[in-house]
Design brief:
The complex is a heterotrimer of chains A (295), B (422) and C (293). With 295 residues, chain A is mainly alpha-helical. Helices cover 75% and strands 0% of the residues of chain A. The longest helix of chain A is centred in the C-terminal third of the chain and has 35 residues, at 260-294. Chain C has a domain at 69-242: MetI-like fold (Orthogonal Bundle), CATH 1.10.3720.10. The chains are: A mainly alpha (295), B alpha/beta (422), C mainly alpha (293). Chains in contact: A-B, A-C, B-C.
Chain lengths: 295, 422, 293
């Protein structure tokens, strides 16, 4: 486990342009590139096929599944967007994900700060409880959680997803942020303390800014898992107006079961922005995932 | 310093309070005591959704200040997880779809079904239905459901062109059915399409078959948990299901694809027959307008049961007993069954049970025939999953699927049901 | 650092612990309590002692669901972790232009599972599906199968989809880890005449052992929690061949209303997962010291 500072440095050193004399010769090099392309195509093909099929009629999908569409007509996409509530589902996903990530960052950073900077009674116990959260599977609590949420009338509100998503993201967030905080030199905090800064101030104006890379990592990691969460969304949200993308698409696919062109249009609409987001934020996402799992 | 410290404490307290708000406030947030009328159902398909949305708009026009909120769920989801979650949740529906039978009784027992007796005798719904239909919708002396449609849960649909080309006639006996399967297989056509991934699609059909072999009473007793499945009669009944497997009567993929994919086989002309319920008509007209198809009831079986029995279920809408808008809900159900809206549903290929439906002229002849078949049936068999306990139904369905897929012998399958149900 | 007031650390911790306690710890305890009762979720609750555990021990479906999930995990270790490792190795040989490759491989991770399931239902469909059509085009009719309807292939078919989704995820982890291997080490090995394959096997992989163990832990604990692919693609079928603990739990609790019995199964599952996780982290923690030469 390396500290973030060291990690960045070694990444940089590895990124120095490698000496350009591959032991593999020219022709194998071409073959190598071609095989990479082939692998990429195999991985990407189902998605291409989905987009092509969104321009086709049912009978074309069934009779000539591999053929290119005869025309590219986005009217099905418009139709899917308008009748499919896709915008509503995306908005719900964004709200739920945004609120959960905000909660995870704020509460997680505060808790990590306490664990990293203070020694107090019960510290090990509380840390152990949170660490248990890293191992506890969803199954260990979702049954009672659902009866509890039902009794408290939280189901069918956005809180029914925000609260568990926040709770599920906290253990990893606290753990990661604590690693970052532990790496900061004590003098930084002591100096501020000598200047008379309060605890909250030390947290707000010293710890938080220095934690920024860690927070970004946690944000990406938790956003990915909240965005696609399926089981709790299926159990807790029945109201169509509050459904998130995973369960909303399930509802869509059962409303228009027989119209595969329309279904693929809706699926394409949801998928393409995700691909664009990945290409744009590729670097941050990779760092987020790596730090999230390797630290 | 003290000032600073106080600030810290205050701010941290705000931080923690926000956590408490996160966890606490939702509970207090408003009851569903508002002007929204919530209606929940499994998705009835695109054409009927348009009618429903229109009825909702009419109701909103007639009742200013009231909003109608429709919730169309995935069918299987609604039947299993969806409805119970909705009823126990906040924003519980005021009106919800239900199947008559054990399910309806359970809802009444759990206190989720309002007494509609007054509404149907002297209230807004009076006179819209033949009074006889309410007998099966009465629990403990109270009418608890307003019927909407009667579905024949299963008949054998066949593609008229494929049958004509192969010189076949629709099978009326078990031996004829098996011979038809052989003939169609020789032609390279799938005899019967079925999409049984969720177990009810072939389950309904095969359960009906077994009821004709073991007899309606034995069927009902076993499904109600009053008798064991492991009897020679049930083994015999399952033996006929094995015949289907042996003669390769259904598509190889039957247990891997869902009911929509199964129907596609029939629509695309890859399969000559399709065993499914009356809802296929509306679907086929939308999906495969050029398809020439008709139906026959399940062929007669050697056995105890009535060989002209029909497997069917009345479906309709229940008013939630916990709703504060029961009168409004009754008015909505009256509007739903108004002459005009009944005709609109007929246009969407659903034939409502309201009296005015028979006045309609553009009912599809097949739909009309199915209604007639249900009304004149000498015996009605309830589908296991809507008429009886779901867990029992599921055990039966799973066993039937195993035999249909050639996985298990009839003896083991039947014994397995009792074992599973403990 | 010394807090200004003794209560301060607790105030910082309170929000996180409140949410975590409310939504996770308390329900864990309640699930344990429910496991000794017979309850349908809203009616009367009866205490039944360890009956539910006895029932679980004799429940062949429950037992089989563990076998299935173990097979699934084994398959995904191969299809996700090993494939991801190989892909990362390939990409790290040739860095230029690898972004597009990595985008193509990683994209499935971002897709909602419903999209994945609908797409692959079409790939596997027996009658209209892409896979059987492709096999036919290559003259391999003998290999055609009802992929999701055949008990011998259904579980593997789902695993392959899982591999398609997550291989890119593990590739990303390993790729970043490979980038942290000091360039000098690689150079030295090259000078010693190591080929790319030897470099991969003898230098790079051993140097990212930490990342690999974490990936394995993620894959194993994640595998036990698998649900959405199974739910949408097979829902436990055909003939229960893809019934895993989670799908069975959801059926028991939410479809059939057996909250008590479902809770007991959840407790057993929790014990297994946490136990495995603890063993794994312990072994992992001890190894580096012993293994370091």
């Amino acid at each position: 486990m390396s500290t973030p500072v060291r990690a960045t440095r070694s990444v940089q050193s590895a990124r120095r342009p490698a000496p350009n004399r591959s032991p593999i010769g020219r022709i194998p090099d071409l073959l190598f590139t071609l095989s990479l392309i082939a692998i990429a195509v195999v991985f990407f093909f189902p998605m291409l096929w989905m987009v092509f099929s969104s321009f086709k009629s049912n009978s074309a999908i069934f009779s000539t599944p591999f053929a290119l569409p005869t025309e590219v007509d986005f009217s099905r996409w418009v139709e899917a967007w308008e009748i499919g509530h896709i915008g509503q589902y995306a908005l719900n996903s964004a709200i739920v994900t945004g609120a959960s990530v905000f909660g995870i960052l704020l509460f997680g950073a505060a808790a990590a700060f306490a664990f990293s900077r203070y020694r107090f009674r019960g510290r090990n116990l509380l840390m152990g409880l949170l660490a248990l959260g890293l191992l506890l599977p969803l199954q260990s609590y979702f049954i009672a959680q659902s009866t509890m949420f039902t009794q408290l009338a939280i189901t069918d509100t956005r809180w029914a997803l925000i609260i568990p998503y926040t709770a599920m993201g906290l253990p990893l967030a606290v753990y990661l942020l604590k690693v970052y905080l532990d790496a900061l030199p004590d003098e930084l905090f002591e100096a501020a303390r000598i200047d008379g800064a309060s605890d909250l101030r030390v947290f707000g104006s010293i710890a938080l800014p220095l934690l920024r890379p860690g927070l970004a990592t946690v944000a990406i990691f938790s956003a990915l898992s909240s965005w696609n969460e399926f089981l709790l969304a299926l159990l807790y949200i029945q109201d169509d107006a509050l459904k998130t993308i995973p369960t909303g698409l399930l509802a869509f696919s059962s409303r228009y079961v027989t119209d595969y062109g329309l279904l693929f249009s809706a699926l394409s609409i949801v998928t393409l922005p995700m691909i664009v987001i990945y290409i744009v934020f590729n670097k941050q996402i990779v760092e987020g995932i790596t730090a999230g799992s390797v630290k | 310093m003290t000032v600073m410290r106080k600030k810290t404490t205050a701010a941290v307290a705000v931080l923690s309070a926000s956590a408490l708000i996160l966890s606490g406030c939702a509970a207090g947030a408003g009851d569903s005591d508002d002007s929204v009328l919530r209606i929940a159902m499994g998705s009835p398909g695109e054409a009927q959704i348009r009618v429903w949305d229109d009825v909702a708009a009419q109701f909103e026009d007639a009742n200013p200040g009231v909003t109608v909120e429709m919730n169309y769920q995935d069918d299987d989801l609604y039947q299993t997880i969806g409805l119970p979650n909705l009823l126990n949740g906040r924003n519980a529906p005021d009106i919800y779809f239900e199947w008559a039978g054990a399910r309806l009784e359970q809802r009444a027992a759990d206190g989720f079904a309002a007494d509609l007796t007054e509404a149907v005798t002297s209230g807004p719904i009076a006179g819209l239905f033949d009074e006889e239909v309410f007998t099966s919708l009465t629990v403990d002396g109270a009418v608890v459901m307003v019927p909407h449609a009667a579905d024949v849960a299963n008949v054998l649909w066949y593609n008229e062109d494929i049958f004509a080309d192969a010189g076949l006639t629709p099978p009326t006996s078990w031996d004829e059915l098996l011979a038809t399967c052989d003939a169609l297989n020789a032609e390279g056509v799938i005899p019967i399409a079925s999409g049984n991934k969720d177990l009810w699609a072939a389950g309904n059909w095969l359960a009906h078959l077994t009821s004709r072999v073991v007899g309606e009473e034995a069927y009902s007793a076993a499904l109600s948990g009053e008798a064991d499945f492991n009897t020679p009669e049930w083994v015999e009944a399952f033996g006929y299901v094995k015949d289907l497997a042996d003669h390769k009567c259904v598509n190889e993929s039957a247990n891997a694809v869902d009911d929509n994919e199964g129907a596609q086989l029939f629509f695309q002309g890859k399969a000559a027959m399709h065993a499914i319920g009356s809802w296929l008509v509306s679907w086929a007209i939308d999906e495969a307008p050029d398809l020439n198809f008709d139906y026959v009831n399940l062929p007669s079986m050697p056995g105890e049961g009535n060989q002209d029995s029909v497997i069917g279920v009345v479906t309709g809408y229940v008013v939630n007993a916990k709703s504060s808008k029961q009168d409004l809900a009754a008015e909505f159900l009256a509007l739903l069954n108004s002459d005009e809206n009944v005709q609109a549903f007929i246009g969407a290929e659903l034939t409502p049970m309201a009296l005015s439906a028979s006045a309609g002229e553009d009912i599809d002849s097949r739909s009309a025939g199915l209604i007639d078949m249900l009304e004149t049936a000498p015996a009605i068999v309830l589908p296991p999953d809507t008429g009886y306990d779901l867990e029992t139904a599921n055990a039966l369905y799973a066993a039937l699927a195993e035999v249909l897929g050639g996985q298990t012998s009839p003896e083991d399958a039947v014994a397995g049901i009792d074992q599973k149900l403990g | 650092m010394k807090p200004n007031r003794r209560v301060t650390p607790y105030l910082f911790l309170m929000p996180a612990m409140a949410v975590f306690g409310f939504a996770v710890l308390f329900p864990v305890i309640m699930t344990f309590a429910y496991s000794f009762t017979e309850w349908n979720g809203y009616g009367a609750m009866t205490f039944v002692g360890i009956d539910n555990y006895v029932r679980a021990a004799g429940d062949t479906i429950f037992r089989d669901s563990f076998t299935h999930v173990l097979i699934y995990i084994a398959a995904t270790i191969l299809l996700e972790v090993v494939v991801g490792l190989i892909l990362a190795g390939l990409v790290s040989v040739k860095r230029r232009g690898s972004l597009w490759f990595r985008v193509a491989i990683f994209t499935p991770v971002m897709l909602p599972m419903v999209v994945v399931a609908v797409l692959w239902a079409f790939v596997y469909n027996n009658d209209f599906g892409l896979l059987n059509a492709a096999l036919q085009n290559f003259g391999l009719e003998d290999l055609q199968r009802v992929w999701l309807g055949d008990t011998s292939t259904a579980l593997l078919a789902v695993s392959v989809v899982s591999g398609w989704v997550y291989a890119g995820f593990y590739m990303t982890i390993f790729y970043a880890a490979f980038n942290q291997v000091p360039a000098e080490v690689i150079e030295a090995a090259r000078l010693d005449g190591a080929g790319e394959w030897q470099l991969f096997r003898r230098v790079k992989v051993p140097m990212i052992r930490n990342a690999i163990t974490v990936a394995l832990l993620l894959c194993i604990t994640g595998g036990f929690q698998g649900f959405d692919l199974f739910y949408v693609m097979t829902n436990g079928g055909p003939y229960g061949a893809t019934e895993i603990p989670t799908t069975y739990l959801v059926k028991s609790v939410f479809t059939f209303g057996n909250v008590g019995y479902g809770s007991a199964m959840a407790v057993v599952l929790t014990a297994v997962v946490v136990g495995l996780g603890l063993i794994f982290t312990r072994v992992n923690r001890e190894k580096p010291e012993g293994a370091r030469r």
